Amino acid sequence: MAAQINPSILSADFARLADEAQAVAGADWLHVDVMDNHFVPNLTLGVPIVESLARATDTPLDCHLMIEAPDRWAPQYVEAGAGSVTFHVEAAAAPVRLAREIRAKGARASMALRPATPIEPYEDLLPELDMLLIMTVEPGFGGQAFLDIMLPKIRRTRELIGKHGLDLWLQVDGGVSASTIEQCADAGADVFVAGSAVYGAQDPAEAVRALRNQAEAATGKASWACDH
C-alpha cells in the first residue's frame, strides 16, 4: 500500500507560496491549514489564498479547516479548488450532512479528531468519509512535538476501518518527521502531513521522497497492512 506525503504550507514561506508549492511538486497533496483564531488560537489563511494556490500548482490541495462553523464554510473551499476538505467533528453541527455535501461538490470528505477526542463514538460515521485525520499534536501551531500517546488511537482507528472493510485513508498530522513517521505507519496511518520536516529541509522534494520511502518500508512490515 502506497504511503502519501502531504507537505504543510504552514511551515512554508508565506511570501513565496507559489514557489514553495512548486518545491514539493512530487508530493501527493499540498496540506493547507485554515485557522480562524476561534476554534484554535491562531489565524492563518482563507478562501482567496486557496483559490490562488489552486491556480499556482498541479498538486491537489488538502484543506484542513480548524475553524468554527465548518458546515457553513467547508463547501466554499471545494469551490475554491480543494480536492479534499477536512472538518473537525468537534466544530461540526451536522457531520454526516457536511461530509455528503463536500462529496456532492466533488471533493474528498475528511473528518479530524483532536487528541482528546475518541474515535469510538464516530464509528458509524466512517462510511460517510474518504479520510479520517488523527491529530498527533493539539491543532493550532506548527513545529510541535509528536504526541506518542496517540499511537494506540491510530491503531484502534485502523482496526475499525478494517472491521467495516472500508477504503478509508487514515491521516496523521503533527510532529511527523523522519523519527516518528515509521511509528505512525506501523500503527496504521497511510497519509502523513509533514511541515517543518519538509520545508525545514535543505531539499524539500528529497525530504518528501525520503519520508515516503520510510513510511512504505514500515507499512510493508506492519501487521495491519499484511492482513489487508
- From the alpha carbons, calculate the radius of gyration and give it in angstroms: 16 Å
Number of helices: 9
* Mean pLDDT reading: 96
Given as residue ranges, the uncertain stretches (5+ residues, pLDDT < 50) are: none
Query: Given the helix and strand composition, which structural class is it?
Result: alpha/beta
For the report, how would you describe the main beta sheet?
A: 8 strands, parallel
Helix-strand sequence: EHEHEHEHEEHEHEHHH
Binding site for substrate: 8, 64, 140-143, 173-175, 195-196
Active site: 33, 173
Cofactor: a divalent metal cation; Co(2+); Fe(2+); Zn(2+)
EC number: 5.1.3.1
Task: Compose a concise summary of this entry.
The protein is of the alpha/beta class and 228 residues long. The protein has 9 helices and 8 strands.
Topology of this structure?
Blueprint: E1 4-7, H1 17-22, E2 30-35, H2 47-56, E3 61-66, H3 70-80, E4 84-88, H4 95-104, E5 108-113, E6 131-135, H5 151-163, E7 169-173, H6 181-187, E8 191-194, H7 196-199, H8 204-221, H9 223-227
Parallel strand pairs: 1-8, 2-3, 3-4, 4-5, 5-6, 6-7, 7-8
GO molecular function: D-ribulose-phosphate 3-epimerase activity
Keywords: Carbohydrate metabolism, Isomerase, Metal-binding
Pathway: Carbohydrate degradation
